[in-house]
């Protein structure tokens, strides 16, 4: 992944008496292969050998040029005592839990809607795929930065993969309420609607458990075993 | 290559300007418009099949839909009496209240329209009453309701319940869309079906129209 580390800022802010970290001013790398994966239809494996049309690659390049200036990746996180967190089945084996929210901002989403409204569906779906990919890359980047930041604190302990509300039996409603109650996400301009949807839409919320004997299975987002068979991000068909 | 074959190629290649040029020529030179529309319809179905088979990427399918829309935009005014048979049915479509996910629903709306449905796209964050009022107003055959969150799926149930309360459930077929929607959910709330992509949705909608 190409990142401009010199630009990276991790700010520490006081919120409700806690020191929270805001990660911003970093760049993410957009991978054509992943964008194409999100745009690929159907479930036939034999058709996947078809060469990607040049005009599509050109259109993706053009849309990436538009997108890159509109993506403003940033994230916020803090570390909490797992004893204070519910539902207990998710946190009972954990000692400390990182809660985080990250986003690519709303500019790309707005531009995507403009294309769709103008009937430029092809451009719109490409921008949407780029935005989804960018949001996932942002989450991955923030995840890595968090792991680097907590390396001392977690020495000799186990760490789960990140897991998000709506997945792994963590209900969307319960998970979002927990994370947004604990983090002042206005600092990164992310809010939660009544239906527990994040605004901007291309945002990711997650948790990471740490401790001597954490349940590592909790954080594994395994597409093969996930119930959301119609999920746009499903990696197996 | 004859004009019909060219028109098919234009749709499959998602070439809007060529598709427009061909249909204008067809009108000017008194080609059989019904036969031309049949060819265009065949092309958009083929584009859908190619997408379902994994051969086409989504932007290619969308370009085909854009070309189809442009071609039909030119042909429709000439149709008034000639090609009533292309009309399949009326659809009211939208994303349920509390949910602002728009793209998946828009793709389904575009493909339904390209296939010959008269589509009333209400957008996103649409209250149940707006869906029902519009469906009654236009005398729709189908109501398509999208929900991308487990928290907003309840709105799909509310829509079915409200149709039942108003004793108009039998007037409409109700299709559900969205990542968390399962066949079990469809059965549980008494909807008529769900599909996992825009092409399957169109096929299901057409199937329901003949029931």
Task: Tell me what you see in this structure.
The complex is a heterodimer of chains A (237) and B (211). By secondary structure, chain A is an alpha+beta fold. Chain A has a single domain, classed as NADH Oxidase, CATH 3.40.109. Chain A is 33% helix and 19% strand. Chain A is built from six helices and eight strands; from the N terminus they run E-E-H-H-E-H-E-H-H-E-H-E-E-E. Chain A has a six-stranded antiparallel sheet with strand order 1-2-3-4-8-5, with helices on both faces. In chain A, strands 6-7 form a two-stranded antiparallel ribbon. In chain A, helix 1 crosses helix 5 and helix 2 crosses helix 5. The two termini of chain A are 26 Å apart. The N terminus of chain A is likely disordered. Chain B has 211 residues and is of the alpha/beta class. Chain B has two domains: 83 residues, Methyltransferase, Methionine Synthase (B12-binding Domains), Chain A, domain 1 (Orthogonal Bundle), CATH 1.10.1240; 124 residues, Cobalamin-binding domain (Rossmann fold), CATH 3.40.50.280. Chain B has a five-stranded parallel sheet, sandwiched between helices. In chain B, helix 5 links the parallel strand 1 and strand 2. In chain B, helix 5 packs across helix 9. The model of chain B has no long low-confidence stretch (mean pLDDT 93). At the A-B interface, helix 4 and helix 5 of A face helix 3, helix 4 and helix 5 of B.
Describe the secondary-structure layout.
The complex is a heterodimer of chains A (237) and B (211).
Chain A: E1 9-15, E2 18-24, H1 32-39, H2 54-68, E3 74-81, H3 88-91, E4 96-103, H4 107-117, H5 121-149, E5 158-159, H6 172-182, E6 191-192, E7 198-199, E8 203-211
Antiparallel strand pairs in A: 1-2, 2-3, 3-4, 4-8, 5-8, 6-7
Chain B: H1 3-12, H2 16-28, H3 33-52, H4 58-75, E1 90-95, H5 103-115, E2 118-121, H6 128-138, E3 142-146, H7 154-165, E4 173-177, H8 183-189, E5 193-194, H9 198-210
Parallel strand pairs in B: 1-2, 1-3, 3-4, 4-5
Helix pairs in contact in B: 1-2, 1-3, 2-4, 3-4, 4-5, 5-9, 6-7
């Amino acid at each position: 992944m190409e990142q401009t580390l010199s630009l990276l800022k991790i700010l520490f802010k006081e919120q409700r008496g806690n020191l929270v970290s805001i990660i911003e001013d970093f760049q993410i790398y957009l991978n054509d292969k992943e964008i194409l994966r999100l745009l690929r239809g159907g479930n036939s494996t034999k058709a996947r050998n078809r060469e990607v049309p040049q005009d599509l690659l050109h259109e993706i390049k053009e849309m990436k040029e538009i997108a890159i200036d509109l993506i403003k990746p940033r994230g916020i996180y803090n570390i909490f005592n797992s004893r204070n967190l519910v539902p207990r089945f998710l946190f009972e084996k954990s000692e400390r839990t990182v809660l985080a929210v990250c986003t690519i901002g709303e500019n790309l989403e707005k531009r995507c809607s403009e294309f769709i409204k103008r009937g430029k569906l092809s451009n719109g779906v490409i921008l949407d795929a780029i935005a989804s990919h960018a949001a996932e890359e942002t989450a991955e980047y923030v995840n890595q930065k968090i792991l680097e930041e907590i390396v001392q604190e977690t020495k000799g302990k186990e760490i789960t993969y990140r897991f998000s509300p709506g997945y792994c039996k963590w209900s969307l409603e319960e998970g979002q309420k927990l994370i947004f109650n604990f983090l002042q996400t206005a600092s990164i301009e992310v809010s939660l609607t009544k239906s527990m949807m994040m605004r901007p839409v291309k945002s990711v919320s997650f948790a990471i458990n740490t401790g001597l004997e954490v349940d590592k299975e909790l954080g594994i987002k395994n597409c093969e075993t996930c119930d959301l068979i119609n999920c746009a991000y499903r990696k197996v068909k | 290559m004859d004009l019909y074959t060219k028109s098919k190629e234009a749709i499959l290649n998602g070439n809007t300007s060529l598709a427009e040029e061909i249909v204008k020529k067809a009108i000017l030179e008194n080609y059989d418009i019904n036969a031309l529309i049949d060819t265009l319809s065949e092309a958009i179905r083929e584009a859908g099949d190619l997408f379902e088979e994994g051969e086409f990427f989504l932007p290619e399918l969308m370009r085909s839909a854009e070309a189809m829309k442009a071609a039909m935009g030119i042909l429709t005014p000439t149709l008034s009496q000639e090609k009533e048979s292309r009309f399949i049915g009326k659809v009211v479509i939208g994303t349920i209240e509390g949910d602002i996910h728009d793209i998946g629903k828009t793709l389904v709306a575009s493909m339904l329209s390209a296939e010959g449905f008269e589509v009333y796209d209400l957008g996103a964050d649409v209250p149940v009453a707006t869906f029902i009022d519009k469906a009654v107003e236009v005398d729709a055959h189908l109501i398509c309701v999208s929900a991308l969150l487990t928290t907003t799926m309840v709105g799909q149930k509310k829509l079915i319940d409200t149709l039942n309360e108003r004793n108009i459930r039998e007037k409409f077929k109700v299709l559900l869309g969205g990542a968390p929607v399962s066949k079990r959910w469809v059965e549980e709330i008494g909807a008529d079906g769900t599909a996992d992509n825009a092409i399957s949705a169109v096929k299901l909608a057409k199937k329901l129209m003949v029931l």
